[in-house]
Design a protein that fits this description.
Shape: globular
Strand order of the largest sheet: 4-3-5-6-7
Structural class: mainly beta
Radius of gyration: 14 Å
Number of helices: 0
Distance between the termini: 28 Å
Largest sheet: 5 strands, mixed
Oligomer: single chain
Length: 111
């Protein structure tokens, strides 16, 4: 997954990842594109992008299958204001400033 860190005045550092699929997981495992220090599995899930001519841009978070045999769960569509709890102490909030744009901003917060 191509990515870079952008430093923006008064906003801090921002991870800019571009592509159709970004993996999310625990930082110590070294398996995820978006690596977080939180109570997560090494590969916790994926943020995925789809685009269609009629439907426009669609972002979703898809949980990874549980390594102990459970299913991955249902994908969550990332519309404006949708919160995705990743684990204890980690939550993503989706921000889409313009529905016509394919861009998505995820704000990371601790619970």
């Amino acid at each position: 997954m191509p990515a870079f860190i952008a430093s923006i005045d008064e906003a801090g550092d921002v991870l800019v990842a571009y592509g159709r699929r970004v993996s999310v997981g625990h930082a110590a495992a070294g398996e995820a594109d978006l690596a977080l220090l939180a109570d997560l599995r090494p590969l916790h899930g994926w943020i995925e992008f789809e685009e269609s001519f009629h439907g426009g841009a669609l972002w979703a978070f898809s949980p990874a299958p549980d390594p102990n045999g459970g299913s991955g769960g249902t994908a969550i569509v990332l519309d404006e204001g949708v919160r995705v709890t990743l684990g204890r102490g980690a939550e993503l909030v989706a921000r889409r400033s313009d529905p016509a744009s394919a861009s998505l901003v995820l704000e990371l917060s601790g619970q």
